[in-house]
Predict the 3D structure of the following.
Amino acid sequence: MVRSTRHTDIGDTQVPAPQDWTSLQPGDIVEVIEPGGYSYEARIESKTEQSDILWIRSHGFGTRHLLHNQDGTRLQAGTTPDQPQNRNPPALPGTGSSLPGPAGLSRPQAITPTIWRKHMNTSANSTFNRTPLIAGNWKMNMDHVQGSSLLQHLAEALYEAKHDYARVEVAVFPPFTTLSAVQTLIQDDGLGLVSGGQDLSPFDSGAYTGDVSGQFLARLGCKYVLVGHSERRTIHGETDATVNAKVKATFRHTLTPVLCVGEGLDIRKAGTHIQHTLSQLRAGVDGLTSDQAAGLVVAYEPVWAIGTGEVAGPEDAQEMCGAIRAELAGLFDADVASKTRLLYGGSVKASNAPAMLQAADVDGVLVGGASLDAGEFANIVGFERQMAG
Ligand code: 13P
């Protein structure tokens, strides 16, 4: 997988050191919080007690190293590309050697010496900060007969697993023509899952042949609507402006948008995936109120990982979801950002979902292919069992 190196401002500002930073050991995972709240996980590669050096390797960003004074305040920090030759501790201060970092150095605000698992929103033993959402996007599969059968099998599997829908929300996104059958089953059988549309018109009614109004989806009992899925953006040429109009239409009809963002392979290779995705995010949420933004769901779906079997790592999902949450905090406020649910999507299966859902800012998954298999999707919904095991 192509990874990029993040270079930000040079800074020699002293930063608050973690209170018990001396207890950190190689192999520990720490959370490094950047100005603005942007955070990422890093693993301590090695530590030199004598000079109080922590050599920290960041997941997904290349190699990051931090030097501390005896009192724990930071001396200097740098980021170098994730090359094997850079995986050695930096030269000690006073030896005449300089840090092997590029000109752009980051300025962490804080380093929290807490193991990553303890940070995660989704945990086997604790309550969730945000209700996890496991969403199945059926795409253009499942006519109303096939869809009814799939939903019945899924409901049965979840019933047998004693699934608690209030704890982990489950949503399916069938094609428009299957929605009515799904809704009938949900209502008549009193199923705990909810449904959503895969798209909607930016307009409410009128001469828009082939389009479907948010009003129609709301009348069918839909709770959610996917907006700006990469397949709509690429195949149907949906622009950021269209996506924003659709997000607003969703709210007009008291539906909740699942705003999809994410970069293609070329952008990932160029290392500009964060800027690209945050730009889609900013355009998508333009003009929303704080209440709307807090209720929004954002799905990060790297296009190169959709339907390819190429799954992004949990660190990639966390990198982007952390950046999205920090961006929302800047656009709205930290309280809003702490409520917005962020999903990862792209080749999610029962085998990789638990790792994804351990990331602190990943509140759920948007599943394509694997949601067409009732057993597999039910196992994704039951991700906590795998975490516990
Ligand atoms: P896959 O899970 O098939 O990669 O699809 C992801 C997706 O596009 C969900 O919206």
The longest strand covers residues 39-48. Residues 133-388 form a domain with the TIM Barrel fold (CATH 3.20.20.70). The chain has two domains: 21-114, 133-388.
